[in-house]
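Entry — protein

Goal — fold tokens:
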Amino acid sequence: MANRKKTDETEIERAVEAEAEKTAEKKTVTVILPRDPNKKGEEADQEFFSVNFKNYLIKTEEPVEVPVEIVEVINNIAQARREARAYAKKVAFREAKPPA
């Protein structure tokens, strides 16, 4: 029984060490997020991101080290916002047709 417990502890230690090595290998990138002009007060000072159940509050207008996965999310959000603005412009300046 004691030998089994020691084996379990050794397996746990190996798993923890393997996870620590994975974490050490993760790459980070320095980003500076612009402040969103549509937000006011404390809400404008930070942005919330979540990837694989890990949550991040990133300060705006300051250099911050973030995992590569977060950079991908930031880029996807920026692209979606650009596309939304382009669509809004296209629809806003279209001539209205009278109802049939």
Summary: The first helix runs from residue 2 to 25. The radius of gyration is 23 Å. The first strand starts at residue 28 and ends at 32.
